[in-house]
Amino acid sequence: MTKLSVNINKIATLRNSRGGNNPDLVKVALDCERFGSEGITVHPRPDERHIRYQDVFDLKATIATEFNIEGNCREQKFVDLVLANKPAQVTLVPDAEGQITSNHGWDTIKHKDYLQEMVSVFKSAGIRVSIFVDPVVEMVEAAAESGTDRIELYTEAYAHNYYDNREKAILPYIAAAHKANEIGLGINAGHDLDLHNLKYFAESIPGLLEVSIGHALISDALYLGLENTIQLYLKQLKH
Ligand SMILES: CC(=O)[C@@H](O)[C@H](O)COP(=O)(O)O
Ligand SMILES: NCC(=O)COP(=O)(O)O
């Protein structure tokens, strides 16, 4: 069964817009868990525009489900933060500075040695590692050589092309997933997954272990309520 990890970056964005503690990020994380979320994802960025580094410590001290910290391991502050908190999983994302959101996966061929080194740093601390990749078979193969436990398939292209031709949009993801399964890599996925495109993705990808969803889920919660929304997302993952 595919696990749902709720990304709470957008809750922090809302909180930071007024400078106080409303909404309370830790309370929202605990409520997400209470409403059925099987994990909590955050993606602290160097400018702390949403998740602050202190949030990571506060969340680690309170949540009970799998904690997934995503980010750019080229930032030493990020590496230190992850090592100090020892989440269940770290997801390595090749963010450029000032990027609005993540927009590409790692070139695992070009950066193989570097990724190998970083994977070993995190795995030595007992942290499961996932590498964010585009759905390209060669990138999946090279990711495996770094020693990573999992990959996270970057699903923006799938989401973007879903309405136009979902059968075509899913093809590279199926090929990437088959390769990952063949070489023993676990599969996560995320970015722009939503209530419309999630079911077909989850049904089509063999061995999908986890999806992390933030933007659409939190937006849906404005209309549907957080509890109902999380239940609806979980329903899409049951097949
Ligand atoms: C890694 C990834 O796919 C992103 O979706 C990310 O976690 C979202 O980050 P922002 O909330 O900063 O756009
Ligand atoms: N890893 C993807 C993630 O955490 C959330 O992405 P999005 O749903 O905010 O696009």
From TrEMBL:
Residues marked Transition state stabilizer (site): 152
UniProt: 3-amino-2-oxopropyl phosphate binding residues: 7, 18, 192, 214-215
Active site: 43, 70, 191
EC number: 2.6.99.2
Keywords attached to this entry: Cytoplasm, Pyridoxine biosynthesis, Transferase
Main subcellular location of this protein, as a coarse class: cytoplasm
Stored CDD domains: PNPsynthase (cd00003)
InterPro entries: Aldolase_TIM, PyrdxlP_synth_PdxJ, Pyridoxine-5'_phos_synth
Metabolic or biological pathway, per its Swiss-Prot or TrEMBL entry: Cofactor biosynthesis; pyridoxine 5'-phosphate biosynthesis; pyridoxine 5'-phosphate from D-erythrose 4-phosphate: step 5/5
Nuclease among keywords: no
Protein residues bound to 1-deoxy-D-xylulose 5-phosphate: 45, 50, 101
Signal peptide (residue range): none
The protein's assembly and partners: Homooctamer; tetramer of dimers.
NCBIfam families tied to this protein: pdxJ, PRK05265.1-3, PRK05265.1-4
Entry similarity comment: Belongs to the PNP synthase family.
Alphabetized PANTHER family for the sequence: PYRIDOXINE 5'-PHOSPHATE SYNTHASE
Function of the molecule: Catalyzes the complicated ring closure reaction between the two acyclic compounds 1-deoxy-D-xylulose-5-phosphate (DXP) and 3-amino-2-oxopropyl phosphate (1-amino-acetone-3-phosphate or AAP) to form pyridoxine 5'-phosphate (PNP) and inorganic phosphate.
Name of the protein in question: Pyridoxine 5'-phosphate synthase
